[in-house]
Structure formats: structure tokens, C-alpha cells
Specification:
InterPro entries: CheD-like_sf, Chemorcpt_Glu_NH3ase_CheD, Cytotoxic_necrot_fac-like_cat. The protein is an alpha+beta fold. The chain has helices at residues 72-85, 105-108, 115-130; strands at 2-3, 6-10, 16-19, 23-29, 33-39, 44-48, 94-99, 134-139, 144-150, 156-161. A 5-stranded mixed β-sheet has the order 1-2-4-9-10, with no helix packed on it. The chain has a 5-stranded mixed β-sheet with strand order 3-6-5-7-8, with helices on one face. The radius of gyration is 16 Å and the shape is globular. The termini are far apart. The model has no long low-confidence stretch (mean pLDDT 88).
């Protein structure tokens, strides 16, 4: 969608986007996680919306297509490849991480480690592996987050809503 001189992109689960200063990227996260990468001088950025930290061993990408934005490790590789194609040096980027919320606290309390928590920890590890500094994060807790990333400024706005736990009747 175009708003004035900028374009808005809405990410669904499993999607990612790489763009320049004309773009604003938004999504809504529950247990999923978004990583934003931003290069301050070039004003180029990327954002993911992944569902799981990584695929099960032996599982090929969707329909045999290779990498999938549904998985954190794959989404990161896809974003990195597109950023590097545009001349972005990864170590000059800033990263921000969001999501990993507990959506059903009474149900997830009985699980050893909730999906959202695994996703958030995986995002932190991925960024460390790539040597990209994390300048901000809003991870874990309960409920969902609305995220808006302005690639022109590098700003990310977050609004978190608490979960209405209806589990465990």
C-alpha cells in the first residue's frame, strides 16, 4: 500500500522483506519472532516474521523450494543474501528483535520451553553468529505485538497487547 511518498508492506507469518528508505514494514507477532536489520548510512533494511527457529532435520523447504521464511535460520539467510546483493556490509547493520510471546499462559506453563521462547533465543544466537549487534529487543512476556519498522529512519514501534488466556477450561 502506498502512503504519500512511502510504501507499506504487511508481513504474514513466514514472510520477509528487504527494502530501502521508501518502505515501512508492519506485522503482528504472537510466538513468532521478527528480526529487523538496518544499515544506517545506506538506509536499507530487512524484516522477517518466522514461526519456528529452524526446520526439523531432513525436512526440505516448502514444495522442495529450498530455504523458507517460516524458519528463523532460513529467513536470516534469505535476508542476508538480499542485503549483500545490495552492497550492505552486515557488520555495519543494527538489529532489533521482537516477539516470542506466550499466547496461552495456562497451557504453555506446562511445556518445558515454549515455542516463542525458543524463537527468541534462536534469533539472539543467529545475530551473534553473523556478528550483527542487537541494539534493541522486546521479547517474551504474554500476548501479541504490533510491529512497525520505518526503513528510512531505522525506528521500530511496538505495541504489546496482553493475552486473553482461554486455555485450561
Amino acid at each position: 500500500m502506498r502512503t504519500g511518498d512511502s510504501f507499506e508492506v504487511y508481513l504474514l507469518p513466514g514472510e520477509y522483506f528487504v527494502g530501502d528508505a521508501r518502505y515501512r514494514i508492519r506485522t503482528v507477532l504472537g510466538s513468532c519472532v521478527s528480526i529487523t536489520l538496518w544499515h544506517p548510512r545506506l538506509r536499507i533494511g530487512a524484516m522477517s516474521h518466522f514461526l519456528l527457529s529452524e526446520r526439523e532435520p531432513g525436512i526440505v523447504g516448502e514444495h522442495g523450494a529450498g530455504l523458507s521464511g517460516r524458519y528463523g535460520r532460513d529467513a536470516m539467510a534469505l535476508m542476508v543474501a538480499q542485503l549483500q546483493e545490495r552492497g550492505v556490509r552486515l557488520r555495519e547493520c543494527e538489529a532489533k528483535i521482537f516477539g516470542g510471546g506466550t499466547m496461552f499462559p495456562s497451557i504453555e506453563a506446562s511445556q518445558h520451553e515454549a515455542i516463542g521462547h525458543r524463537n527468541g533465543v534462536a534469533a539472539e544466537k543467529l545475530l551473534a553468529e553473523y556478528g550483527i549487534p542487537v541494539v534493541s529487543e522486546s521479547l517474551f512476556g504474554t500476548g501479541h505485538r504490533h510491529i512497525l519498522f520505518d526503513v528510512g529512519t531505522g525506528d521500530v514501534w511496538v505495541r504489546q497487547s496482553e493475552a486473553a488466556d482461554t486455555g485450561g477450561a
